[in-house]
Design brief:
By secondary structure, the chain is of the alpha/beta class. The protein has a single domain, classed as TIM Barrel. The protein is 42% helix and 13% strand. It contains twelve helices and ten strands. An eight-stranded parallel beta sheet has the order 3-2-1-10-9-8-6-4. A two-stranded antiparallel sheet has the order 5-7. Helix 8 packs parallel to helix 9. The longest helix has 22 residues. The radius of gyration is 20 Å and the shape is globular.
């Protein structure tokens, strides 16, 4: 993954021109950003498969990136935990999130926390608890709880009430296991199931409120919010309004029809600008984590470009002025809002 002459580093000219709030942001990326991304048509992936050590090295080539996310059992386990912690730290990075794998094998095909099989449920809870223990040892504050396989595909296939009982009970048990580690609920409307039980920001808020633990909150994955036909800015505002429960952010983009995990700002640029405004307004100080899948693109360039977009859009907020944006929002004048953005973007 050496730098290619004439390509790296990418220059963020917008950032160079607009260096204020953007300089304080903390950027992380799912370490799989830099690996060969596969889909159901090309199962081996569209590029060369890298070792975890090579992925760490690739992450260091992204300007401004200071954190990485890892997946339990994929990148870290009981045997290599100390070694991986040392390698990541020596690379000048820190682990920002550990994601337990309770979705990527056939074992979980009929659910994890909500599975009908009680042994599967126990195994899923065990995996989350182990990830919380690993996170603590890695000095990482966040474990991502994504119930990707907990859902249904057909009518009359699921007992919705039993599923919610199981998810709530399992989440409470995990939250109590390592209270100093935050569990962030990542919602997604579909995939791999046609319907995921925890599929919207509203359902996530209900789950968080029912669990009622200080270390349980939510993550917004921008692409998942788009799939759910949400405005991520509104979703973030809801999570903060109802108990300051926005603990983590995943940044990406898509066309709303699927979880394309495209680079930040590539499709929904204005919506991204609004999201960043509200994150700033509400005092969000968590990680700005990239969860992108550059199937055919170079992962280092894709991550760098995503960071450039976030920094550049934050710089645009500085140029417009927070007070002016607040005034336009208060007025409810959509054409004034349009003119404000147009003038900022086009001059």
């Amino acid at each position: 993954m050496a730098r290619r002459e004439g390509v790296f580093p990418i220059t963020c000219y917008l950032v160079n021109r607009r260096q204020t709030m953007a300089t304080t942001l903390r950027f992380s990326a799912n370490i799989n950003t830099f690996n060969a991304c596969a889909d159901r048509y090309v199962l081996s992936g569209y590029g060369e498969r890298l070792t975890t050590e090579e992925l760490i090295k690739a992450a260091t080539q992204v300007e401004g990136l200071t954190g990485v996310e890892v997946v339990g059992l994929w990148h870290v386990n009981d045997d290599n935990l100390e070694q991986m912690h040392r390698q990541i730290k020596d690379a000048g990075l820190e682990v920002t999130c550990v994601t337990p794998d309770i979705w990527a094998s056939g074992k979980w095909g009929w659910g994890s926390f909500a599975a009908n099989d009680p042994q599967i449920r126990r195994d899923a809870i065990h995996e989350v608890k182990k990830s919380m223990e690993w996170a603590k040892q890695l000095n990482c504050e966040v474990v991502d709880l994504w119930f990707g396989q907990d859902g249904y595909d057909y009518p009359l296939q699921a007992d919705y009430l039993a599923a919610w009982d199981r998810i709530i009970e399992g989440t409470i048990e995990c939250a109590e296991h390592v209270p100093e580690v935050k569990l962030v609920i990542e919602y997604k409307p579909k995939e791999p199931r046609t319907h995921c039980f925890i599929g919207t920001v509203g359902k996530t808020l209900l789950l968080v409120e029912k669990v009622n633990k200080p270390n349980v909150g939510a993550m917004i994955d921008v692409g998942h919010a788009l799939m759910a036909y949400e405005n991520a800015a509104e979703s973030a505002a809801m999570l903060q309004y109802f108990g300051q429960k926005l603990f983590y952010m995943h940044f990406n983009d898509n066309w709303r029809l699927w979880d394309d995990d495209m680079t930040v700002g590539s499709v929904h640029t204005v919506e991204m600008l609004e999201l960043l405004y509200w994150l700033d307004r509400m005092g969000y100080n968590g990680w700005y984590a990239l969860d992108i899948f550059p199937y055919r693109e170079d992962g280092i360039r894709a991550a760098t470009e995503s960071i450039c977009w976030i920094k550049g859009l934050y710089g645009l907020l500085d140029e417009i002025g927070r007070d002016r944006i607040a005034q336009v929002i208060a007025s409810g004048d959509a054409m004034e809002a349009s003119a404000m953005i147009r003038e900022a973007l086009l001059g």
